[in-house]
What we know:
Elements: E1 2-9, E2 12-18, E3 23-26, E4 28-30, H1 43-49, E5 54-57, H2 59-64, H3 68-73, H4 76-81, E6 86-89, H5 93-98, E7 103-105, E8 110-113, E9 120-123, H6 125-135, E10 139-141, H7 153-179, E11 187-192, H8 198-209, E12 215-218, H9 227-237, E13 247-249, H10 255-263, E14 268-270, H11 273-279, E15 282-285, E16 288-291, H12 318-326, H13 330-356, H14 360-371
Parallel strand pairs: 4-14, 5-6, 6-10, 10-11, 11-12, 12-13, 13-14
Antiparallel strand pairs: 1-2, 2-3, 7-8, 8-9, 15-16
Helix pairs in contact: 7-8, 10-13, 11-13, 13-14
Amino acid sequence: MHFDLEATDGHARAGTLTTAHSTIQTPVFMPVGTVGSVKSLDAHDMTDILDAKIILGNTYHLYLRPGDEVVHTMGGLHGFTQYDRSFLTDSGGFQAFSLSDISKADKDGITFKSHIDGSTHYFTPEKVLDIQGNLGSDIMMILDDLVALPATKERIALSIERTTQWAKRSILYHRANQAQGKAQEQNIFAIIQGGTDPEFRRISATQLCEMDFDGFAIGGLSVGEPNQAMYDTVELTTPLMPTHKPRYLMGVGTPEDLVENVKRGVDMFDCVMPTRNARNGTLFTSFGKLNIKAARFQTDELPIDPACDCFTCKRYSRSYLSHLYRARELTFFRLASLHNLHYYLGLMKQMRQAILVGKFEGFYREFYAKRA
Length: 372
């Protein structure tokens, strides 16, 4: 993997991230393909229609079904899904957090019960890298200890201690594998924890950024804290991260979140919001959100967004999409998801272009003006 930082405008950054499978211009949004599929879309949609250069797969879910060994046998994620560009896979730490009623962390890893059949499994820092090795992802996230907010200082301190120790084990294991000729085209990112406490964030960032990871993520945000607390935490954390390596903010978020955090120096994002909201009838536009369930759209001849040139907006009216949604027609999921992802990916391209020409502040003001 290679990362070139091409331009900065304030703290906002534009770069190019090159993996074995694609060249990714940053800032970038990664559509979420939890089980090896972005819901309602296929590899053709992702490459030929949306031109997405990287998507996210979920280690926990793919390990349970169909099993990482099955994916490996079928050619890794690239061969299995026929999406031949880059994959980032998460570590399973977030699932341990979100399924906390059926999981438990200790100093060596995380025990959890399958949400599918109740079977018990144990993730260690080494095991999650073995799983991701079988998946063949371009970027592997290491195991971290994520806590919900608000949390006690004691719990956050324990989270940092575990995350740092697991990071040390992960990088030693990964480099040893590479020395044996394994994981040659795979890269690992560490995940900075610390809640919204400035001192804890400094401790976690300092400890992790001293290690030779290929990139660094900011984790443990968008888990219950106010938006401004998230923005303040990112603003504090990005200057502590290496300038010559990619910076990834995990699980965030709304279009406003993307703009605010690009402004604060983040390069990479992922979130289920564009596809999940699409399936629920909420569509993102240049002027804000549109709820296709509203009665006024039943006879509306306009596209979702007259300023949008996506596959859906070039072909279909709000009226037709309103009908599909009300009829619970599966076609709606695809058309709405294509639109929302096109909007998200296009928003990142607009920010990148503004950074490259030194006009990000103007873009920032115009973005909010359109929503006024």
